[in-house]
Amino acid sequence: MESHRPGHRLALPALATLVALASPVAARADGNPGYDRPGLGFAPAVLQAGDVSWEQGLPDASRDRKDGVTSTQYGADTLLRLGLGRSVELQLGGSPYNYLRQTGTGAHYRSHGRGDSTLGMKFALPASGAFSWGLLGNVEFTDGARDFRNPRRQYLFGADFNWQWSAHNTAALYLENVRSGGRDSHLLAANDGYALTPTLNGFIEIALQDDTDGGHGSRAGAGLAWMLTPHVQVDASARHRIGGHAPEWEAGLGVSAYFGH
Fold it and tell me: Which residues belong to the signal peptide in this entry (predicted)?
């Protein structure tokens, strides 16, 4: 049977947040460096040696329409982070359950299964005053169910640059390159985050991208992250296509937990 896998998403499940860059001082004082969800990019800070965090989509979803067929996908995107010390952390990602529905022009297709697994390393580089930055590299394997795996192994390299303008306002720039099958796709995202209250943070973002087929697109979004406790965050976010090759809609609900010393 022909595969009905939806269009390739440039941002991988192992990717991240910029809203956590404005995390409350109380959480940071407790040793929590912030989370990599929601949003595009990642927090340019790593866990201390032996610390663990778990970030879970409840779910994350995307919708796209092509040639009269509407594809809607839901995924339980999961990211586990382990601090290794020396400004390095190990990341294990995946999507243990996905659901795909396609409708339109006589088509009616449904599928479910797990997605690909990712293995990555994040590095926090030396900060200077209000500026901090980090690097992320990972590999995405082709071990998911047929409708939810990439045709070839993918290699991601990302860099996140953060400027803390004030105690309440943070700006960030995220650059990403994904290589698969000898071709590269790119993503450039800009983000502005604001601490609305000591425990509630909001952000807006805009992104430009191109894919391995030469298509270009843009999208914009916003989100919120609420620190229930210094160790637990819940989030909600959404993005919409502005133009070109990009998912029509992306949205997500999630929870993240920090397990420190």
Answer: 1-29
